[in-house]
Amino acid sequence: MKSSLCEVFSLAALVLLAAGSAVADDAAVFRLDQAVQAGTLTLPAGVYEFRVSDRGVVSVFDDETSAIVGVTVARRDPLDLAHRSASATLTHDRAVRSISIGDFRYSFRAAPAPAGMAALQRPTTVVALAR
């Protein structure tokens, strides 16, 4: 009895571990050629990894993913079939407007530009870097 109970609990634990890895965060690496605002974060020019959760939480890491730069929140909307080709892109002017990763677009609320941050004439779309 005790042996079969241990087997059942072991099997249940394996199923939970497998299910947990299936809901991993989506991530993409982008090079930003100018300083931008990403939600509540100000990011200088550089390479960053953006990880997005299913709840719209966006974590920004440095280019080596060794340190977290910051965390902000974005609105999460599904990409329809016609816009799936825009996946793995980031659109910005003086601020990140949206990130499309996987099957979703994450949109940031417009925030006032920090002093001295130059805006581009038109929004620019950046494609994710391959790792």
How would you describe this protein?
The chain has 131 residues and is of the alpha+beta class. Helices cover 16% and strands 41% of the residues. The chain has one helix and eleven strands, in the order αβββββββββββ. The protein has a five-stranded antiparallel sheet, with no helix packed on it. A four-stranded antiparallel sheet has the order 1-4-5-6, with no helix packed on it. Strands 2-3 form a two-stranded antiparallel ribbon. A hairpin with a 5-residue loop joins β5 and β6.
Can you give me a brief rundown of this structure?
This protein has 1 helix and 11 strands, in the order αβββββββββββ. It has 131 residues and is α+β, with helices and mostly antiparallel strands.
Features:
globular, five-stranded antiparallel sheet, 1 helix, alpha+beta, four-stranded antiparallel sheet, 11 strands, 131 residues
> What is the string of SSEs from the N terminus onward?
HEEEEEEEEEEE
Q: How many strand elements? A: 11
Helix content: 10-25%
Straight-line N-to-C gap: 50 Å
Regions with little confidence, pLDDT below 50 for 5+ residues: 8-23
Mean pLDDT comes to 79
- Cα radius of gyration in angstroms: 19 Å
**Helix count, per DSSP?**
1
Which strands sit side by side, in order, in the main sheet?
7-10-9-8-11
Overall form: globular
**Structural class by sheet pairing and helices:** alpha+beta
Strand content: 35-45%
Q: What kind of sheet is the major sheet?
A: 5 strands, antiparallel
